[in-house]
Amino acid sequence: MDFKNRDVISIKDFSKEEIIYVINYAKKMMPYAKGEKHIDILKGKILSTLFFEPSTRTRLSFESAMNRLGGRVIGFADPNATSQKKGESLADTIRMADSYSDVIVIRHPQEGAARLSTEFAESPVLNAGDGAGHHPTQCLLDLFTIVTEKKKIKGDKIVLLGDLKYGRTVHSLAYALSLLGAELSFVSPESLKMPKEIINECKEQGPEPSSTSNLEKAVKDADVLYVTRIQRERFPDAEEYNRVVGTYKVDINLLKYAKEDLIIMHPLPRVVEIDPEVDKTPHALYFKQAFNGVPVRMALLSLILGDRQL
Fold first, then answer.
1. 121 phi and psi, to 5 degrees?
2. 134 in active site
3. What is the average per-residue pLDDT within 143-153?
4. How far apart are CA 48 and CA 105, in angstroms?
5. Is the pLDDT of residue 80 over 70?
6. 136-290 and 11-134+292-305 share a CATH fold
7. What is the CATH number of domain 11-134+292-305?
């Protein structure tokens, strides 16, 4: 598979075979991600991280991935400390980052900003989240987590819970899971249902997703429960947010309805949607899931920039 100098903007830009290839390549990166082995295949390469929105896991795991591969990182985590504050356009910021580095990772509040950035950069651009649009590298690490824990995705019953309207993570994930043959169930407040266009995309390539407001019923047969935060920052109306926050909560009582081998995932950060008591159970996979961002992003950076592979 040829990933050389490729942009990563949407999971829809990947074929089924390419997704599986990245997942398998990420498995090879695991000992390097853990620091058990060392590699320098990106020595001399520079990654620019342009984060116009807050981030902990995505930004740090990209930086960790690049460092583990022998490369270096420049960038910013606060746009107020950059020339954007002076009125510089996104296009000019991208042009400058492109001249300083070999690959650009961007997170931006505006949907479509990552794809627009590709018009002004000669170097590859990786989308680290664009508004309520896409988050392809999060999607790939989520798929990697499911495969490593469940050994497969086809036929798995997977529940997506929470903010399905504004959640870019579940938008990317629903598409990819359908492509790989999972059976999806959507659980959300009425005002935060999965957009119809994404439901239609899922129906076109896999089993038709089901929708319910009954979390206990949905969890009963689930293999994976993927929980998302109700995102205050995506709501145009604060009152709308206050009406729905805390609608669903994953706690010990809910787990009474679950199978013994249910895994619970969350892209993090969490707020009130998962009780900390759940952390102590074997169901909780969200911290391991977050670590998996390192081998997956190492795999992508290696495939896109490297002159050789493992």
1. -120, 135
2. no
3. 97
4. 6
5. yes
6. yes
7. 3.40.50.1370
Kindly report the length of the chain.
Answer: 310
Domain 136-290 of CATH type 3.30.300.30: no
Which residue did the predictor score with more confidence, 267 or 233?
267
Task: Indicate if 108 belongs to the active site.
Answer: no
**Cβ(90)–Cβ(106) under 8 Å?**
no
Active-site residue, selected from the candidate residues 59, 135, 171, 283: 135
Domain ranges in the chain?
11-134+292-305, 136-290
Cα–Cα distance between 44 and 91 in angstroms, integer? 26
Q: Which of 6, 45, 49, 58 is catalytic?
A: 58
Residue 186 pLDDT: 96
* Position 286 confidence tier, pLDDT thresholds 50, 70, 90: very high
Active site residue 28: no
pLDDT value at residue 247? 72
Q: Which of 148, 126, 121, 118 is nearest to 33 (CA)?
A: 148
Structure tokens at 53: 């929105």
**232 has pLDDT over 60:** no
Instruction: Identify whether 86 is a catalytic site residue.
Output: yes
Record the pTM. Answer: 0.93
- 102-138 pLDDT, tens digit per residue, is 999 999 999 999 999 999 999 999 999 998 778 999 9
Going by pLDDT thresholds of 50, 70 and 90, the confidence category of residue 306 is confident
